Protein backbone atom coordinates (compact mmCIF):
# COMPACT_ATOMS: atom_id res chain seq x y z
CA UNK A 1 0.00 0.00 0.00
CA UNK A 2 1.33 3.45 -0.92
CA UNK A 3 2.00 5.64 2.10
CA UNK A 4 2.85 9.16 3.19
CA UNK A 5 6.47 9.26 4.32
CA UNK A 6 7.08 11.19 7.52
CA UNK A 7 10.77 12.10 7.64
CA UNK A 8 11.90 12.14 11.26
CA UNK A 9 14.17 15.00 12.32
CA UNK A 10 13.94 14.17 16.01
CA UNK A 11 10.80 16.04 17.03
CA UNK A 12 9.11 14.84 20.18
CA UNK A 13 5.86 15.10 18.20
CA UNK A 14 6.78 12.93 15.18
CA UNK A 15 4.65 9.98 16.30
CA UNK A 16 1.72 12.35 16.71
CA UNK A 17 2.01 13.30 13.01
CA UNK A 18 1.54 9.64 12.13
CA UNK A 19 -1.41 9.28 14.48
CA UNK A 20 -3.14 12.39 13.19
CA UNK A 21 -2.50 11.38 9.56
CA UNK A 22 -4.09 7.99 10.12
CA UNK A 23 -7.03 9.55 11.93
CA UNK A 24 -7.65 11.40 8.68
CA UNK A 25 -7.62 8.01 6.87
CA UNK A 26 -4.22 8.25 5.17
CA UNK A 27 -1.59 5.54 5.48
CA UNK A 28 1.74 6.85 6.81
CA UNK A 29 5.12 5.56 7.99
CA UNK A 30 8.00 7.21 9.85
CA UNK A 31 11.42 7.04 8.18
CA UNK A 32 14.90 8.39 8.83
CA UNK A 33 16.42 10.62 6.15
CA UNK A 34 18.78 7.84 5.10
CA UNK A 35 16.03 5.20 4.92
CA UNK A 36 13.89 7.49 2.78
CA UNK A 37 16.78 8.15 0.38
CA UNK A 38 17.48 4.43 0.06
CA UNK A 39 13.84 3.75 -0.75
CA UNK A 40 13.90 6.45 -3.44
CA UNK A 41 17.05 4.93 -4.98
CA UNK A 42 15.27 1.55 -4.99
CA UNK A 43 12.47 3.09 -7.05
CA UNK A 44 9.88 3.44 -4.29
CA UNK A 45 7.76 6.58 -4.26
CA UNK A 46 5.49 7.96 -1.51
CA UNK A 47 2.07 9.56 -1.87
CA UNK A 48 3.51 12.64 -0.16
CA UNK A 49 6.31 13.64 2.20
CA UNK A 50 6.03 15.34 5.58
CA UNK A 51 9.22 16.86 6.98
CA UNK A 52 8.90 16.78 10.77
CA UNK A 53 10.08 19.27 13.33
CA UNK A 54 13.37 18.80 15.11
CA UNK A 55 15.67 20.21 17.80
CA UNK A 56 18.55 21.20 15.52
CA UNK A 57 19.15 24.34 13.45
CA UNK A 58 19.14 24.56 9.66
CA UNK A 59 22.41 26.49 9.95
CA UNK A 60 24.12 23.32 11.18
CA UNK A 61 22.44 20.93 8.73
CA UNK A 62 24.63 19.97 5.74
CA UNK A 63 22.38 17.18 4.43
CA UNK A 64 21.38 17.32 0.76
CA UNK A 65 17.57 17.26 0.53
CA UNK A 66 17.43 17.57 -3.27
CA UNK A 67 16.16 13.97 -3.70
CA UNK A 68 13.01 14.95 -1.78
CA UNK A 69 12.30 18.36 -3.23
CA UNK A 70 12.91 17.33 -6.86
CA UNK A 71 10.08 14.79 -6.61
CA UNK A 72 6.82 15.78 -8.25
CA UNK A 73 4.83 14.91 -5.13
CA UNK A 74 3.26 17.00 -2.34
CA UNK A 75 5.55 18.07 0.53
CA UNK A 76 4.54 19.46 3.92
CA UNK A 77 7.21 21.02 6.12
CA UNK A 78 6.43 21.36 9.83
CA UNK A 79 8.50 23.75 11.97
CA UNK A 80 12.07 22.66 11.17
CA UNK A 81 10.71 21.10 8.00
CA UNK A 82 9.30 24.47 6.89
CA UNK A 83 12.68 26.11 7.49
CA UNK A 84 14.41 23.46 5.38
CA UNK A 85 11.87 24.06 2.62
CA UNK A 86 12.35 27.82 2.72
CA UNK A 87 16.14 27.47 2.70
CA UNK A 88 16.11 24.99 -0.21
CA UNK A 89 13.97 27.24 -2.42
CA UNK A 90 16.08 30.35 -1.72
CA UNK A 91 14.33 32.02 1.20
CA UNK A 92 15.99 33.40 4.32
CA UNK A 93 15.98 31.71 7.71
CA UNK A 94 17.14 33.81 10.65
CA UNK A 95 18.31 32.81 14.08
CA UNK A 96 15.64 33.67 16.58
CA UNK A 97 15.97 36.49 19.07
CA UNK A 98 12.57 36.21 20.73
CA UNK A 99 11.43 32.68 19.84
CA UNK A 100 7.94 31.24 20.13
CA UNK A 101 7.13 28.47 22.59
CA UNK A 102 3.71 27.25 23.60
CA UNK A 103 0.34 28.56 22.49
CA UNK A 104 0.14 31.39 19.97
CA UNK A 105 -2.71 33.02 18.09
CA UNK A 106 -2.30 32.70 14.30
CA UNK A 107 -4.13 34.55 11.53
CA UNK A 108 -5.12 32.85 8.27
CA UNK A 109 -4.58 34.94 5.13
CA UNK A 110 -7.44 35.13 2.59
CA UNK A 111 -5.39 33.09 0.07
CA UNK A 112 -5.78 30.00 2.23
CA UNK A 113 -9.24 28.51 1.71
CA UNK A 114 -10.00 27.49 5.28
CA UNK A 115 -13.38 28.08 6.98
CA UNK A 116 -11.78 30.01 9.87
CA UNK A 117 -9.63 33.13 10.01
CA UNK A 118 -7.65 32.59 13.22
CA UNK A 119 -6.95 29.87 15.74
CA UNK A 120 -4.64 28.90 18.58
CA UNK A 121 -1.55 26.95 17.50
CA UNK A 122 1.34 25.30 19.34
CA UNK A 123 4.73 26.83 18.58
CA UNK A 124 8.15 25.44 19.49
CA UNK A 125 10.94 27.24 17.64
CA UNK A 126 13.66 29.86 17.82
CA UNK A 127 14.84 30.12 14.19
CA UNK A 128 12.22 31.41 11.76
CA UNK A 129 11.66 32.23 8.08
CA UNK A 130 12.15 35.98 7.63
CA UNK A 131 12.09 36.19 3.80
CA UNK A 132 9.99 33.76 1.80
CA UNK A 133 11.36 32.19 -1.42
CA UNK A 134 10.16 33.22 -4.84
CA UNK A 135 6.99 31.43 -5.99
CA UNK A 136 5.86 31.17 -2.33
CA UNK A 137 3.25 33.24 -0.54
CA UNK A 138 2.58 33.83 3.15
CA UNK A 139 -0.68 32.13 4.08
CA UNK A 140 -0.56 32.21 7.92
CA UNK A 141 0.96 34.74 10.32
CA UNK A 142 1.38 34.59 14.08
CA UNK A 143 0.03 37.40 16.24
CA UNK A 144 3.55 38.78 16.77
CA UNK A 145 4.04 39.19 13.03
CA UNK A 146 6.27 36.17 12.36
CA UNK A 147 5.59 34.02 9.29
CA UNK A 148 3.66 30.94 10.43
CA UNK A 149 2.72 29.38 7.08
CA UNK A 150 3.90 29.49 3.47
CA UNK A 151 2.57 27.86 0.29
CA UNK A 152 4.09 27.42 -3.17
CA UNK A 153 2.05 29.12 -5.90
CA UNK A 154 2.66 26.36 -8.48
CA UNK A 155 3.79 23.17 -6.71
CA UNK A 156 2.02 21.22 -3.94
CA UNK A 157 4.25 22.58 -1.17
CA UNK A 158 3.07 23.85 2.22
CA UNK A 159 5.15 24.96 5.20
CA UNK A 160 3.85 25.42 8.76
CA UNK A 161 5.91 26.96 11.54
CA UNK A 162 3.55 25.54 14.18
CA UNK A 163 2.69 21.92 15.05
CA UNK A 164 -0.73 20.93 13.62
CA UNK A 165 -0.35 17.40 15.01
CA UNK A 166 -0.55 18.28 18.71
CA UNK A 167 -3.72 18.53 20.75
CA UNK A 168 -2.95 22.14 21.72
CA UNK A 169 -3.37 23.31 18.10
CA UNK A 170 -7.13 23.66 18.01
CA UNK A 171 -7.57 23.47 14.22
CA UNK A 172 -4.64 21.16 13.52
CA UNK A 173 -6.67 18.34 11.97
CA UNK A 174 -8.41 20.77 9.62
CA UNK A 175 -5.08 22.24 8.48
CA UNK A 176 -3.63 18.79 7.82
CA UNK A 177 -6.80 17.79 5.99
CA UNK A 178 -6.43 20.92 3.83
CA UNK A 179 -2.91 19.81 2.88
CA UNK A 180 -3.95 16.24 2.06
CA UNK A 181 -7.15 17.00 0.18
CA UNK A 182 -6.84 20.53 -1.25
CA UNK A 183 -3.09 20.96 -1.78
CA UNK A 184 -2.17 17.34 -2.48
CA UNK A 185 -5.42 15.98 -3.97
CA UNK A 186 -4.82 12.63 -2.20
CA UNK A 187 -7.36 9.85 -1.92
CA UNK A 188 -7.99 8.33 1.52
CA UNK A 189 -6.42 4.88 1.86
CA UNK A 190 -6.33 3.85 5.52
CA UNK A 191 -9.30 2.03 7.02
CA UNK A 192 -9.77 -0.69 9.62
CA UNK A 193 -10.07 -3.28 6.87
CA UNK A 194 -6.74 -2.17 5.40
CA UNK A 195 -5.06 -2.46 8.82
CA UNK A 196 -6.41 -5.98 9.26
CA UNK A 197 -5.34 -7.07 5.80
CA UNK A 198 -1.77 -5.77 6.32
CA UNK A 199 -1.55 -7.63 9.63
CA UNK A 200 -2.78 -10.87 8.07
CA UNK A 201 -0.29 -10.51 5.21
CA UNK A 202 2.53 -10.39 7.75
CA UNK A 203 1.18 -13.48 9.53
CA UNK A 204 0.84 -15.43 6.26
CA UNK A 205 4.65 -15.45 6.00
CA UNK A 206 4.52 -18.27 8.56
CA UNK A 207 1.67 -20.25 7.02
CA UNK A 208 2.16 -24.03 7.37
CA UNK A 209 4.94 -23.51 9.97
CA UNK A 210 4.92 -23.96 13.73
CA UNK A 211 4.82 -20.56 15.44
CA UNK A 212 5.59 -19.52 19.01
CA UNK A 213 3.97 -16.63 20.84
CA UNK A 214 5.45 -15.11 24.01
CA UNK A 215 1.98 -14.50 25.40
CA UNK A 216 1.20 -11.97 28.14
CA UNK A 217 -2.59 -11.82 27.76
CA UNK A 218 -2.42 -8.05 27.27
CA UNK A 219 -4.24 -6.41 24.40
CA UNK A 220 -1.24 -6.47 22.04
CA UNK A 221 -0.29 -10.13 22.39
CA UNK A 222 -3.95 -11.18 22.50
CA UNK A 223 -4.93 -9.37 19.28
CA UNK A 224 -1.78 -10.65 17.54
CA UNK A 225 -2.45 -14.22 18.68
CA UNK A 226 -6.16 -14.11 17.82
CA UNK A 227 -5.42 -12.93 14.27
CA UNK A 228 -2.59 -15.44 13.89
CA UNK A 229 -4.85 -18.30 14.95
CA UNK A 230 -7.17 -17.49 12.04
CA UNK A 231 -4.26 -18.19 9.67
CA UNK A 232 -2.21 -20.79 11.54
CA UNK A 233 -4.80 -22.70 13.55
CA UNK A 234 -3.32 -25.22 16.00
CA UNK A 235 0.21 -24.63 14.74
CA UNK A 236 0.32 -21.53 16.95
CA UNK A 237 1.44 -22.15 20.54
CA UNK A 238 1.18 -19.45 23.21
CA UNK A 239 3.48 -19.71 26.23
CA UNK A 240 2.68 -17.59 29.29
CA UNK A 241 5.57 -17.24 31.73
CA UNK A 242 4.42 -16.83 35.34
CA UNK A 243 7.33 -15.04 37.01
CA UNK A 244 5.43 -14.55 40.26
CA UNK A 245 5.20 -10.81 39.72
CA UNK A 246 1.62 -10.79 38.45
CA UNK A 247 -1.60 -9.42 39.92
CA UNK A 248 -4.68 -11.48 40.83
CA UNK A 249 -6.51 -10.00 37.84
CA UNK A 250 -3.79 -11.33 35.50
CA UNK A 251 -4.26 -14.91 36.71
CA UNK A 252 -8.04 -14.59 36.39
CA UNK A 253 -7.66 -13.15 32.88
CA UNK A 254 -5.42 -15.97 31.66
CA UNK A 255 -7.80 -18.60 33.02
CA UNK A 256 -10.69 -16.88 31.24
CA UNK A 257 -8.77 -16.79 27.96
CA UNK A 258 -7.91 -20.48 28.28
CA UNK A 259 -11.62 -21.28 28.74
CA UNK A 260 -13.04 -19.02 26.04
CA UNK A 261 -10.40 -18.67 23.30
CA UNK A 262 -9.40 -21.42 20.83
CA UNK A 263 -5.71 -20.70 21.53
CA UNK A 264 -3.12 -23.23 22.72
CA UNK A 265 -2.11 -21.42 25.93
CA UNK A 266 0.40 -23.08 28.25
CA UNK A 267 1.38 -21.51 31.59
CA UNK A 268 5.00 -21.91 32.68
CA UNK A 269 5.32 -21.72 36.46
CA UNK A 270 8.74 -20.11 37.02
CA UNK A 271 8.08 -18.20 40.25
CA UNK A 272 10.81 -19.92 42.24
CA UNK A 273 13.44 -19.36 39.52
CA UNK A 274 12.74 -15.63 39.29
CA UNK A 275 12.71 -15.13 43.06
CA UNK A 276 16.06 -16.88 43.38
CA UNK A 277 17.61 -14.70 40.65
CA UNK A 278 16.18 -11.48 42.15
CA UNK A 279 17.24 -12.23 45.72
CA UNK A 280 19.00 -9.25 47.29
CA UNK A 281 18.80 -6.99 44.22
CA UNK A 282 17.22 -3.56 44.69
CA UNK A 283 18.53 -1.53 41.73
CA UNK A 284 15.64 -0.87 39.29
CA UNK A 285 17.63 -1.34 36.07
CA UNK A 286 19.34 -4.48 37.35
CA UNK A 287 15.98 -5.91 38.38
CA UNK A 288 14.64 -5.26 34.87
CA UNK A 289 17.64 -6.96 33.27
CA UNK A 290 17.44 -9.95 35.59
CA UNK A 291 13.73 -10.37 34.86
CA UNK A 292 14.27 -9.96 31.09
CA UNK A 293 17.23 -12.35 30.89
CA UNK A 294 15.57 -14.93 33.14
CA UNK A 295 12.42 -14.74 31.04
CA UNK A 296 14.45 -15.57 27.91
CA UNK A 297 16.22 -18.50 29.63
CA UNK A 298 12.99 -19.95 31.03
CA UNK A 299 11.15 -19.51 27.74
CA UNK A 300 13.96 -21.05 25.69
CA UNK A 301 14.30 -24.08 27.94
CA UNK A 302 10.55 -24.69 27.94
CA UNK A 303 10.33 -24.41 24.16
CA UNK A 304 13.18 -26.86 23.54
CA UNK A 305 11.59 -29.29 25.98
CA UNK A 306 8.23 -28.89 24.22
CA UNK A 307 9.79 -29.44 20.79
CA UNK A 308 11.49 -32.63 21.93
CA UNK A 309 8.35 -34.00 23.58
CA UNK A 310 6.10 -33.24 20.60
CA UNK A 311 8.61 -33.85 17.79
CA UNK A 312 8.08 -30.44 16.19
CA UNK A 313 10.31 -27.48 15.35
CA UNK A 314 9.30 -23.83 15.73
CA UNK A 315 10.38 -21.55 12.88
CA UNK A 316 8.77 -18.23 13.84
CA UNK A 317 8.17 -16.10 16.93
CA UNK A 318 4.99 -14.00 17.03
CA UNK A 319 5.16 -10.79 19.07
CA UNK A 320 2.70 -7.96 19.70
CA UNK A 321 5.27 -5.25 19.08
CA UNK A 322 3.67 -1.85 18.41
CA UNK A 323 4.89 1.05 16.26
CA UNK A 324 6.13 3.18 19.20
CA UNK A 325 8.26 0.20 20.33
CA UNK A 326 9.85 -0.08 16.89
CA UNK A 327 10.46 3.66 16.53
CA UNK A 328 11.95 4.04 20.01
CA UNK A 329 14.20 1.00 19.53
CA UNK A 330 15.83 2.27 16.34
CA UNK A 331 19.00 4.34 16.51
CA UNK A 332 18.78 6.54 13.41
CA UNK A 333 22.18 8.14 14.13
CA UNK A 334 23.71 4.84 13.03
CA UNK A 335 21.72 5.11 9.81
CA UNK A 336 22.45 8.76 9.07
CA UNK A 337 19.21 9.97 10.63
CA UNK A 338 18.48 12.88 12.93
CA UNK A 339 16.83 11.23 15.91
CA UNK A 340 18.39 9.53 18.90
CA UNK A 341 17.66 6.23 20.58
CA UNK A 342 15.12 6.64 23.38
CA UNK A 343 15.20 3.08 24.70
CA UNK A 344 15.90 -0.49 23.69
CA UNK A 345 12.55 -2.24 23.87
CA UNK A 346 12.31 -5.81 25.10
CA UNK A 347 9.92 -6.82 22.29
CA UNK A 348 12.31 -6.00 19.47
CA UNK A 349 15.35 -8.05 20.51
CA UNK A 350 16.38 -10.98 22.67
CA UNK A 351 14.34 -14.07 21.98
CA UNK A 352 14.44 -14.23 18.16
CA UNK A 353 18.24 -13.92 17.99
CA UNK A 354 19.00 -16.40 20.77
CA UNK A 355 16.53 -19.00 19.56
CA UNK A 356 17.29 -18.48 15.85
CA UNK A 357 13.67 -17.74 15.05
CA UNK A 358 12.22 -15.52 12.37
CA UNK A 359 10.13 -12.71 13.82
CA UNK A 360 6.50 -11.99 12.95
CA UNK A 361 5.19 -8.63 14.18
CA UNK A 362 1.76 -8.04 12.60
CA UNK A 363 1.08 -4.95 14.75
CA UNK A 364 4.45 -3.28 14.23
CA UNK A 365 3.02 -0.32 12.30
CA UNK A 366 0.06 0.26 14.62
CA UNK A 367 -0.59 2.34 17.72
CA UNK A 368 -2.39 1.08 20.81
CA UNK A 369 -5.74 2.66 19.90
CA UNK A 370 -5.55 1.11 16.41
CA UNK A 371 -4.86 -2.31 17.93
CA UNK A 372 -7.98 -1.92 20.07
CA UNK A 373 -9.98 -1.06 16.95
CA UNK A 374 -8.68 -4.29 15.37
CA UNK A 375 -9.62 -6.18 18.53
CA UNK A 376 -13.19 -4.96 18.14
CA UNK A 377 -13.12 -5.81 14.44
CA UNK A 378 -12.24 -9.45 15.15
CA UNK A 379 -14.93 -9.65 17.86
CA UNK A 380 -12.79 -9.92 21.00
CA UNK A 381 -14.50 -9.03 24.27
CA UNK A 382 -14.38 -5.33 25.05
CA UNK A 383 -13.10 -5.87 28.59
CA UNK A 384 -10.19 -7.87 27.11
CA UNK A 385 -9.07 -5.25 24.62
CA UNK A 386 -9.51 -2.30 26.99
CA UNK A 387 -7.45 -3.74 29.83
CA UNK A 388 -4.92 -1.34 31.30
CA UNK A 389 -1.29 -1.74 30.19
CA UNK A 390 0.93 -3.81 32.50
CA UNK A 391 4.75 -3.71 32.26
CA UNK A 392 6.75 -6.85 31.49
CA UNK A 393 8.65 -6.75 34.82
CA UNK A 394 5.27 -6.48 36.56
CA UNK A 395 5.30 -6.01 40.33
CA UNK A 396 9.09 -6.29 40.15
CA UNK A 397 9.15 -2.54 39.51
CA UNK A 398 6.19 -1.74 41.76
CA UNK A 399 7.99 -2.81 44.91
CA UNK A 400 10.60 -0.12 45.36
CA UNK A 401 13.97 -1.64 46.17
CA UNK A 402 14.48 -5.29 47.04
CA UNK A 403 11.74 -7.86 46.47
CA UNK A 404 10.34 -10.31 48.98
CA UNK A 405 7.28 -12.55 48.92
CA UNK A 406 5.72 -10.40 51.65
CA UNK A 407 6.31 -7.17 49.69
CA UNK A 408 4.92 -8.68 46.46
CA UNK A 409 1.82 -9.83 48.33
CA UNK A 410 1.19 -6.29 49.62
CA UNK A 411 1.17 -4.94 46.05
CA UNK A 412 -0.96 -7.83 44.78
CA UNK A 413 -3.59 -7.33 47.48
CA UNK A 414 -3.66 -3.52 47.27
CA UNK A 415 -3.76 -3.59 43.46
CA UNK A 416 -6.70 -5.98 43.55
CA UNK A 417 -8.57 -3.66 45.91
CA UNK A 418 -7.97 -0.72 43.56
CA UNK A 419 -9.06 -2.81 40.57
CA UNK A 420 -12.25 -3.95 42.30
CA UNK A 421 -13.24 -0.44 43.39
CA UNK A 422 -12.57 1.08 39.96
CA UNK A 423 -14.73 -1.64 38.39
CA UNK A 424 -17.48 -1.35 41.03
CA UNK A 425 -17.79 2.44 40.59
CA UNK A 426 -17.51 2.46 36.79
CA UNK A 427 -14.20 4.33 36.82
CA UNK A 428 -11.93 1.65 35.36
CA UNK A 429 -12.48 2.74 31.75
CA UNK A 430 -12.16 6.40 32.72
CA UNK A 431 -8.45 5.93 33.30
CA UNK A 432 -5.64 4.66 31.07
CA UNK A 433 -3.66 2.93 33.79
CA UNK A 434 -4.14 2.38 37.53
CA UNK A 435 -1.92 0.53 39.98
CA UNK A 436 -0.34 0.51 43.44
CA UNK A 437 3.29 0.81 44.53
CA UNK A 438 4.89 -0.30 47.78
CA UNK A 439 7.13 2.31 49.38
CA UNK A 440 9.35 0.40 51.85
CA UNK A 441 9.43 3.29 54.31
CA UNK A 442 7.71 2.90 57.66
CA UNK A 443 5.48 5.61 59.09
CA UNK A 444 3.64 5.79 62.37
CA UNK A 445 -0.07 5.12 62.61
CA UNK A 446 -2.77 3.87 64.96
CA UNK A 447 -4.68 0.61 64.53
CA UNK A 448 -7.23 -0.06 67.27
CA UNK A 449 -5.68 0.93 70.57
CA UNK A 450 -2.15 0.26 69.42
CA UNK A 451 0.59 2.28 67.76
CA UNK A 452 1.46 0.87 64.32
CA UNK A 453 4.76 1.41 62.52
CA UNK A 454 4.15 0.10 59.01
CA UNK A 455 4.74 0.72 55.31
CA UNK A 456 3.16 2.96 52.64
CA UNK A 457 1.14 2.13 49.52
CA UNK A 458 1.03 4.73 46.75
CA UNK A 459 -1.92 4.75 44.35
CA UNK A 460 -1.15 5.82 40.79
CA UNK A 461 -3.96 6.53 38.27
CA UNK A 462 -3.20 8.31 34.99
CA UNK A 463 -4.83 9.26 31.70
CA UNK A 464 -2.91 9.02 28.45
CA UNK A 465 -3.29 8.20 24.76
CA UNK A 466 -0.11 6.23 24.12
CA UNK A 467 1.91 6.46 27.34
CA UNK A 468 4.36 9.02 25.96
CA UNK A 469 2.76 11.71 28.09
CA UNK A 470 0.26 11.32 30.91
CA UNK A 471 -1.74 13.36 33.40
CA UNK A 472 -2.81 12.17 36.83
CA UNK A 473 -6.50 11.36 37.05
CA UNK A 474 -8.93 13.35 39.18
CA UNK A 475 -10.85 10.51 40.75
CA UNK A 476 -13.89 10.98 43.06
CA UNK A 477 -12.89 11.53 46.68
CA UNK A 478 -15.28 8.84 47.90
CA UNK A 479 -13.55 6.32 45.62
CA UNK A 480 -10.10 7.24 46.92
CA UNK A 481 -11.40 7.18 50.49
CA UNK A 482 -12.85 3.69 49.99
CA UNK A 483 -9.60 2.41 48.39
CA UNK A 484 -7.50 3.86 51.23
CA UNK A 485 -9.75 2.44 53.91
CA UNK A 486 -9.78 -1.03 52.39
CA UNK A 487 -6.01 -1.14 51.86
CA UNK A 488 -5.15 -0.08 55.41
CA UNK A 489 -7.69 -2.53 56.82
CA UNK A 490 -7.13 -5.52 54.54
CA UNK A 491 -3.44 -5.42 53.62
CA UNK A 492 -1.27 -6.54 56.49
CA UNK A 493 1.68 -4.25 57.25
CA UNK A 494 0.33 -1.09 55.57
CA UNK A 495 -0.70 1.89 57.66
CA UNK A 496 -0.71 4.74 55.14
CA UNK A 497 -1.98 5.32 51.56
CA UNK A 498 -0.89 8.25 49.38
CA UNK A 499 -2.12 9.39 45.94
CA UNK A 500 0.44 10.26 43.25
CA UNK A 501 -0.48 13.53 41.50
CA UNK A 502 2.60 13.73 39.25
CA UNK A 503 2.12 14.04 35.49
CA UNK A 504 4.49 12.75 32.79
CA UNK A 505 6.70 14.67 32.32
CA UNK A 506 8.36 15.36 34.71
CA UNK A 507 7.58 11.99 36.29
CA UNK A 508 7.31 8.66 34.51
CA UNK A 509 4.18 6.53 34.78
CA UNK A 510 5.96 3.74 36.63
CA UNK A 511 7.92 4.51 39.79
CA UNK A 512 10.98 2.47 38.81
What are the defining features of this structure?
512 residues, alpha/beta, nine-stranded mixed beta sheet, five-stranded parallel beta sheet, 20 strands
Question: Please, could you describe this protein's structure?
Answer:
With 512 residues, this protein is α/β, with parallel strands linked by helices. It contains 16 helices and 20 strands. The chain has helices spanning 14-23, 33-41, 66-69, 80-88, 172-183, 192-203, 219-232, 248-260, 271-278, 284-310, 323-329, 351-355, 368-377, 382-385, 405-424, 477-490, and strands at 4-7, 28-31, 48-51, 75-78, 92-94, 100-108, 118-125, 128-131, 136-142, 147-152, 157-160, 210-214, 236-242, 264-269, 314-318, 358-360, 433-447, 450-463, 471-472, 494-499. Helix 9 packs antiparallel against helix 10 (284-310) and helix 15 (405-424) runs antiparallel to helix 16. The model is unreliable at 331-349 (pLDDT under 50).
How far apart lie the N and C ends?
Answer: 40 Å
Shape: globular
**Count of helical stretches:** 16
Quote the average pLDDT: 88
Strand order of the largest sheet: 2-1-3-4-11-10-9-6-7
Strand content: 15-25%
Q: Roughly what percent helix?
A: 25-40%
Low-confidence stretches: 331-349
Secondary structure: number of strands: 20
Largest sheet: 9 strands, mixed
* Secondary-structure-derived class: alpha/beta
Gyration radius, rounded = 26 Å
